[in-house]
Design brief:
Distance between the termini of chain A: 68 Å
Strand content of chain A: 5-15%
Strand content of chain B: 15-25%
Shape of chain A: globular
Number of helices of chain A: 7
Strand order of the largest sheet of chain A: 2-3-1-4-5-6
Order of helices and strands of chain A: HHHHEHHEEEEHE
CATH class of the largest domain in chain A: Alpha Beta
Largest sheet of chain A: 6 strands, mixed
CATH topology of the largest domain in chain A: Glutaredoxin
Largest interface: A-B, 15 and 23 residues
Structural class of chain B: alpha/beta
Radius of gyration of chain A: 22 Å
CATH architecture of the largest domain in chain A: 3-Layer(aba) Sandwich
Oligomer: heterodimer
Number of strands of chain B: 28
Radius of gyration of chain B: 27 Å
Number of strands of chain A: 6
Chain lengths: 207, 688
């Protein structure tokens, strides 16, 4: 139901693909009738994925139209959340975690490495459109610090050298294993288990 | 009714208040920036912190509902320290540019910094700087001054109903933006008032005056028929700005853009001396020459060949003086309905907004007939929206499609759809019959047409059919678009038994049956229809359509330059006051008519405004009761007939240009260009 009036800009060169529109409809359907605006973050995310990793004004406008919201309201959401890129992003978006545990373990060196290796500043894109770099706050992988997130995957236990290898491999189109790069399993201790070398018997058994 | 203790004093306050309001009731002023009594609570400026017993830290009083037994302290050292801290944070990024800031002298931040500010800054880092934002020709932005109170965002969304202002970004980097568009609202000027700092200021007023050098005059606005209470700020003879004045029953504390910003039109295209047409050209003349020309032309002329039309901005006094002048000339050809509205002057209930503007708050169904309240009366539209936001209001409209700030059911375009509704057909008929307090609002687009009387009758039928007039409730409303109309009808500035109305006067003039036409500020008629034979006397303040056609021009006073009585669309009688003197030779209108009456040989019996007002009250006692809501008995009006089938048009085609003042205003010209309305399509006389 329309309860305010607002400017409607002319249609611009962005529209959901039929596939994405279906996805968007599924998100909208999760909310009660008349509350479709609740799906705004999901739709922005879909739009960002479709638009090569960033939200253009046209994409934001399209989301506003689909949700029957005032464009300014969608702009407010898109500018509030750091995970929406308002400038074109590279094919690989490297997000370097810089919060305390990662920083103590050498995140600053990772940031510097990325910038030097790629020759770009934060939130800039390399000329070939392959990479962009940004620093972010805690990504929640503190046990595997330092780490970066590249697109949807975590690359953990990094050293600057390993990060350079990963960048080279990605640029060459090779597969890079995700997760801890130091050879350990998830966040298990390096060099094998240090505690509980023997599995204790369960309660009531052998006691 | 919770009881609470504020600064050691017990006080009982109504339910549902917040602590800030309770403190106000107790006579304790709480500093605030983001809190505004007519907007939702944001609670983000933290200036209103108070100490509450059993709370671990100071609480924001604006966001804390009152509770039984609360103990509040507003003057403790803790509160002082907390507010000092908040103020210091607010000033971190606020520039120290008060000497060049237009808000200087009337700025909440400046005032409160006197009480809570620190005398120096401990902030060593760079201040944040924000780029100016474009918000259209009315609002000037200096966004570095913004303290992120979000009052503007809430005002636009809630009161104006226009979601075009938002807060982009977050934290310190939050910026208020309209995405670089002009705000498409008729209430945008109020953003300047709600902004507690100098971030949003009036663009036309920028750098022109300081508040302490202005003389303030309380008056009423006449650019629409709402009768908004305004304060006119003048410096010397110049009106610098117009601001709203609080009147809960009329405008609350808002003012529509045209009324606020058209004041620069008061200084342009003014008629500052009499003119007489000689050899086809208007020549400057003295008052004696002008009166002499009129006296010569009127000599020996029978009353039936003389006619008078009153315009939209006239005060009651001058209309009464003209009416009595015409009576002295034995003429019955006079009309104050220059748009040709078929209003029935015999029954007051038939031409008033009977529900009253404040009465809208109780309505639960509104039927709009041939009216666009957003343009004809933005503040009444805001009042309907306010009622809509409280829930349960249904609105339907018969007429041109509308873009209002609340949902409107489109019920059709013309009288045929109205007749259908009168028969009880359609879904909206069920809404109306189920409503407890239904309203019908009929606008000039429905009445200002040849079949207007029949439509008025039909509207009345609809009102009766759905029992809109019942005990304690009158839901029949006429929404006027001219400030002078109700007063004109009240004092009987209408054709006598054998007199001609507007259309007949124009026809008569074209045919030569009317030889002299007196236009009292009447500019909205089609001057071409007057023909070229009639002798036209124009009395008014602007060189607009009427003055271009005139043979004699008598320079009058604009509404800011005279003491006048105005009756708004709901029949509320209010006084406009002289804020500045008229320019040059121009005089207050009634005095001109009084002087003219002596020349034509029928001296009007009043020598001062007091005597004229006595006469006004004698003519119609309603003029005695100032600022009181009208009550009028329900009676029969209108004329039965079959209305035409043509759809209703628009009474106001360009909100920003409806009268001589706003047409002369540069600001209004910019607004109408900016908002895509273009110049008014009707010929105005100033375009060629």
């Amino acid at each position: 139901m329309k309860i305010t009036s607002f400017r409607r800009d002319e249609a611009q060169d962005f529209a959901f693909t039929p596939e994405n529109l279906k996805k968007a409809k599924a998100f909208i359907a999760r909310y009660p009738e008349g509350r479709q605006a609740s799906a705004v973050i999901s739709l922005l995310y879909i739009a960002q994925a479709q638009n090569d990793g960033w939200l253009s004004p046209a994409a934001i406008q399209h989301v506003a139209e689909v949700l029957e919201m005032a464009p300014i309201r969608v702009h407010e959401v898109a500018t509030f959340y750091t995970m929406f890129n308002l400038k074109p992003a590279g094919k690989y978006l490297i997000q370097v975690c810089r919060t305390t545990p990662c920083w103590l373990r050498g995140a600053a060196a990772l940031s510097r490495t990325c910038q030097d290796k790629l020759g770009v500043g934060f939130k800039e894109m390399t000329e070939d459109g392959m990479f962009s770099v940004m620093e972010v706050e805690c990504l929640g992988a503190c046990a595997n610090a330092p780490m970066v997130q590249i697109n949807d995957d975590y690359y953990e236990d990094l050293t600057p050298e390993r990060l350079i290898e990963i960048i080279d491999a990605l640029r060459a189109g090779e597969e890079v294993p995700v997760g801890p790069q130091g050879g350990r399993l998830c966040s298990a201790p390096e060099g094998g288990a240090k505690t509980l070398p023997k599995v204790p018997p369960g309660a009531g058994k052998g006691a | 009714m919770p009881k609470l203790t504020i600064n050691g004093r017990e006080i009982e306050v109504p339910d549902g208040l917040n602590v800030l309001q309770a403190c106000e009731l107790a006579g304790v002023e709480i500093p605030r920036f983001c809190y505004h009594e007519r907007l939702s609570v944001a609670g983000n400026c933290r200036m209103c912190l108070v100490e509450m017993e059993r709370a671990p830290k100071p609480v924001a009083s604006c966001a804390m509902p009152v509770g039984e037994g609360m103990v509040i302290k507003t003057d403790s050292p803790l509160v002082k320290k907390a507010r000092n801290g908040v103020m210091e944070f607010l000033l971190i990024n606020h520039p120290l540019d008060c000497p060049i800031c237009d808000q200087g002298g009337e700025c909440d931040l400046q005032d409160q910094a006197m009480g809570y500010g620190f005398d120096r800054s401990r902030f060593q880092e760079n201040k944040r700087a924000v780029k100016e934002k474009y918000m259209g020709p009315l609002i000037k932005t200096i966004m570095t001054r913004c303290i992120h109170c979000t009052r503007c965002v809430r005002f636009a969304t809630e009161v104006a109903g226009v979601e075009e202002i938002g807060a982009l970004g977050r934290g310190e980097h939050l910026e208020i933006s309209t995405l670089e568009h002009a705000i498409n609202s008729e209430l945008s000027g109020n953003l300047v008032d709600v902004c507690p700092v100098g971030a949003l200021t009036s663009r036309p007023y920028a750098f022109t005056a300081r508040p302490w050098e202005l003389r303030k005059t309380n008056s009423v606005d006449v650019l629409d028929a709402v009768g908004t209470n305004v304060r006119i700020d003048t410096r010397g003879r110049e009106v610098m700005r117009v601001l709203p004045r609080l009147n809960e029953d009329v405008n609350e504390e808002w003012l529509a853009d045209k009324s606020r910003y058209a004041c620069d039109g008061l200084g342009r295209q003014r008629l500052d001396r009499p003119y007489v047409r000689r050899g086809g050209k208007l020549i400057e003349a003295s008052w004696e020459e002008a009166f002499g020309a009129i006296g010569d032309r009127l000599k020996g002329l029978p009353g039936s060949k003389i006619a008078a039309l009153a315009g939209d901005l006239c005060d009651a006094e001058s209309m009464l003086a003209l009416k009595e002048l015409m009576a002295g000339l034995k003429s019955e050809n006079l009309d104050c309905r220059q748009d040709g509205a078929k209003l029935d002057p015999s029954q007051r209930a038939g031409y008033l907004f009977n529900t009253g503007i404040a009465g809208i708050d109780q309505a639960d169904a509104v039927l709009l007939v041939g009216t666009n309240p957003r343009w004809e009366a933005p503040l009444i539209n805001a009042r309907i929206r306010k009622r809509f936001l409280t829930g349960g209001l249904r609105v339907g409209s018969i007429g041109a499609p509308l873009d209002l700030s609340y949902p409107v059911a489109d019920l059709g375009a013309g009288p045929r759809d109205l007749a259908k509704l009168a028969k009880g057909e359609g879904d909206f008929a069920k809404v109306l019959s189920g409503a407890e307090r239904p309203m019908i609002v009929v606008g000039m687009a429905a009445l200002a047409r040849p079949d207007g009387a029949a439509i008025l009758h039909l509207v009345r039928q609809v009102a009766d059919q759905f029992k809109m007039v019942r005990e304690g409730w009158n839901g029949f409303n006429v929404l006027h678009s001219a400030a002078a109309r109700v007063a004109g009808l009240d004092l009987g500035f209408v054709p006598g038994p054998d007199g001609r109305d507007t259309a007949a006067i124009l026809d008569g003039a074209a045919k030569g049956e009317i030889e002299v036409v007196f236009l009292l500020g009447a500019d909205e008629i089609d001057m071409g229809r007057l023909g070229d034979k009639a002798f036209v006397i124009y009395q008014g303040h602007h060189g607009d359509a009427g003055a271009h056609r005139a043979d004699v021009i008598l320079p009058g006073a604009a509404y800011t330059e005279k003491n006048g009585t105005y009756t708004n669309t709901e029949g509320r009688v209010q006084l406009g006051r002289l804020a500045a003197f008229p320019p040059g030779e121009a005089r207050e209108d009634w005095t001109i008519l009084r002087a003219l009456s002596e020349v034509v040989g029928n001296r009007l019996p009043y020598d001062n405004l007091g005597a004229l007002r006595q006469r006004l009250i004698a003519v119609n006692p309603v003029f005695a009761a100032l600022d009181s809501p009208a009550t009028a008995d329900w009676a029969d009006f209108g004329a039965a007939g079959t209305p035409d089938t043509a759809a209703f048009g628009a009474a106001v085609e360009n909100y920003y240009m409806t009268d001589p003042i706003s047409r002369a205003s540069e600001t209004m010209a910019k607004c109408s260009a900016e908002l895509g309305l273009g110049p008014q399509t009707k010929a105005t006389g100033t375009d060629g």
